[in-house]
Amino acid sequence: MIQDQYIKVGMADLNVTSRIGVLKTTGLGSCVGVTLYDAAAKVAGMAHVMLPSSSIAREGTLNVAKYADTAIPEMIRRMEDLGARTERMEAKLAGGAQMFAFGGSSDTMRIGPRNVESCKELLKRYAIPLKAEDTGGNYGRTIELDCETGVLFIRSVQKGIKEL
Amino acid sequence: MTSLNAFGELQLDVLREVGNIGAGHAATALSQLLDKPIDMLVPKVRIVPFEEIADSVGGAEQVVVAIFLRVEGETPGNLFFIITVDSAKRLLHNLASLAAGQGDDFSEMELSALHEIGNILAGSYLSSLADFTKLSMYPTVPALAIDMAGAILSYGLIQFGQMGDHALLIDTQFWEGSDEVKGHFFLIPDPESFGKIFAALGVHSL
User: Fold this and answer.
1) Among B191, B126, B154, CA closest to B57
2) Does position A103 have pLDDT exceeding 70, yes or no?
3) In a domain, A1, yes or no
4) Contact with chain A for residue B63, Cβ under 8 A
5) Is any Cβ of chain A less than 8 angstroms from the Cβ of B169?
6) Among this protein's residues, is A147 annotated catalytic?
7) pLDDT at residue A137, as a whole number
8) What ranges do the domains of chain B cover?
9) Residue A156's domain is classified under what CATH number?
10) Confidence of residue A121 (pLDDT cuts 50, 70, 90)
């Protein structure tokens, strides 16, 4: 699974690729890695989403990759530019952990689960099936999506490597 | 809303001093715990892109031991005490004569001891800062995690996430003489806290 054609996806970032390459994002905590894949066109996309909704944004120029509700539409658009079709896409989710357990359950502390919920809602809106997920828990994850096969590799300190 | 990029050298100096006082007291506390001298570097005040938040501790995937506590009160923020896994083992060995187990695993007893060490150090960081600024700062009960640095530190960025892709980090590195125990204190004040910190120390925010 270790390949040299890595296409890096940073925090609050997204990227797409066609035919070859492995999309990779590291250190997902409460952030969610959303991946979309069109097997027929061999087009893959990955977003490292940090916050559930752009409605709370107070920044000047919006970084669309940061919020679930703007990252997913943008990723779909860019994948369509590469020949993918929404009705053929399948989604996988990873991340959305609660890294620290606290007595209180303020909004900030629950950000992981909220990110996951928001992503699922968006996928439903676009009628994209959620094929697999590895979300929640209290640990960090690094993920890689192989554009040739659509296989998602998930690595964590506690659980080793998992394949979705 | 204060834009981070608008901070001048004077403001950054104030924040460096904030790190100096907080981490200085925490390092003294650590030195007393270990009965060994602790050295520290001049704090770095950096405005970093989210992507680079974990760079000074070895990158997003580097496994670290972290004590995190949320600061509440007049100047909310996030405080992290981060040490390498090896350092944590040595710290436990020096301090509690807990025999370091093999591998990266920690026993319940070791985790509990680390928790308490983090609590003491973070507590002294905050209380010295609160005394210095006369601002109220209350720590929440600290939480411990042993995981990828990126996954841990991204927790401190959520408040910044709403307003941009950069965060202001007050990073102080410390180590025990023979380099056996080394780590970092990261203070990441919430965006709205800067104005109050500057005002309390007699510097206008802009």
Assistant:
1) B154
2) no
3) no
4) yes
5) no
6) no
7) 92
8) 4-200
9) 3.30.1330.200
10) very high
Q: Which residue has the higher pLDDT, A21 or B1?
A: A21
Q: Give dist(CA A99, CA B155) in Å, integer.
A: 8
At residue A128 the predicted structure's pLDDT band, cuts being 50, 70 and 90, is very high
Domain B4-200: what homologous superfamily?
Answer: CheC-like (3.40.1550.10)
The residue of chain B with its CA nearest to that of A104 is: B140
Which of A157, A158, A159 should be substituted to probe chain B, the one whose Cβ sees the most B Cβ atoms within 10 Å? A157
Residue A119 lies in a domain: yes
Catalytic residue among A9, A14, A16, A31: A31
> From chain A, which residues contact B within 8 Å (Cβ)?
10-13, 26-31, 50-51, 56-59, 63, 66, 97, 99-104, 108, 111, 138-142, 156-158
Number of domains in chain A: 1
> Nearest 5°: phi and psi at B155?
-60, -30
Q: In this predicted model, what pLDDT tens digit does every residue of B99-131 receive, in sequence order?
A: 655 566 788 888 888 888 888 888 899 999 899
Q: How far is B30 from chain A (nearest CA, A)?
A: 24
SS3 sequence, A98-153?
A: CCCCCCCCCCCCCHHHHHHHHHHHHHHHCCCCEEEEEECCCCCEEEEEECCCCCEE
The pLDDT of residue B101: 59
Eight-state DSSP code of residue A97: -
User: Which residues constitute the domain of residue A82?
Assistant: 6-163
Q: Pick from A27, A51, A101: which is nearest to B162 by CB?
A: A51
In this predicted structure, the answer to whether residue B159 has a pLDDT above a threshold of 90 is no
State how far the Cα of A57 lies from the Cα of B143, in Å rounded to an integer: 28
Q: Is the pLDDT of residue B206 over 60?
A: no
Residue B85 near chain A (CB below 8 Å): no
| Residue A90 to chain B, least CA–CA distance (Å) | 26
Q: Is the pLDDT of residue A71 over 60?
A: yes
Chain B residues within an 8 Å CB radius of A158: 147
Domain contains A57: yes
Nearest to B80 by CA among B166, B197, B170, B164: B170
Query: What is the interface pTM, i.e. ipTM, of the complex?
Result: 0.86
| pLDDT tops 80 at residue B1 | no
Paired residues of A33 in beta bridges = A48, A94
